[in-house]
Amino acid sequence: MYPVDLHTHTIASTHAYSTIHDYITVAKQKGIKLFAMTDHGPSMPDAPHMWHFINLVVLPRIIDGIGILRGIEANICNEQGEIDCDERMLQQLDLIMAGFHEPVLQPRDIVTNTDTLIATMRSGKVHIISHPGNPKYPIDIDVIVEAAKEYDVALEINDSSFYRSRIGSSENCKKIIEAVGKIGGMISLGSDSHISYTLADYSHCLPVIEATNFPQDRILNVTPRRVLDFLQRKTGKVISEFIDF
Fold this sequence. Notes:
Strands 1, 2, 3, 4, 5, 6, 7 and 8 form an eight-stranded mixed sheet that branches. Helix content is 32%, strand content 15%. The chain has helices at residues 20-30, 50-54, 87-92, 110-122, 141-151, 170-183, 206-211, 224-235, and strands at 4-8, 34-37, 62-63, 66-75, 95-99, 128-129, 154-158, 187-190. By secondary structure, it is an alpha/beta fold. The model has no long low-confidence stretch (mean pLDDT 97). The chain has a single domain (4-236), classed as Metal-dependent hydrolases (TIM Barrel, Alpha-Beta Barrel). It has eight helices and eight strands. The longest helix has 14 residues, at 170-183. Helix 4 packs parallel to helix 5 (141-151) and helix 5 crosses helix 6. Helix 3 (87-92) links the parallel strand 4 and strand 5.
């Protein structure tokens, strides 16, 4: 149903286990048209060096008919909402995702977490907030959804949060889906795949989306073109290789 995955990790993040070639093989098998490589930002203990992100320019945009977005899952580094993605990296990357990760920024109270996420979105550097349903980082969901709509930032519904990582996220994810449906804005689906076999696997979050009758026109992953238009609106950049996607 959704031919795009906007959250994947390769062996460049050493707690993941697949190469780009592995992902291409699985994408062809599953009919996935576009995916984003979003390895962890350099502040994470086992993340790739900043040169990894700067040098993604050597990666072809399209391999065997599969489009690849050059991305990052950056870390929110402080209460000012700063991320570990500098200007040189920003210039080379197509997609900037950012989220809370305990090795970089420990959880705070609900007010501080909410204010920090708003500051991150207000910066204009981030396109998607990763796994905002994490119960270790409580947020005021309605306030965050209002801010995401104002700053045109998508909120991720992370499939792995339902069964493997950040256990206890499912109820918060449901509330986020309901709030975006009511208030407006966009959601992004991410497998948060750390191995190629789970590319674009949304089997755990889709039942929640379907149960809430969430409008399809507010989901980025419905078509590659919707994602590319969203990123063009955010960055002003046209990726010429994807003109016909």
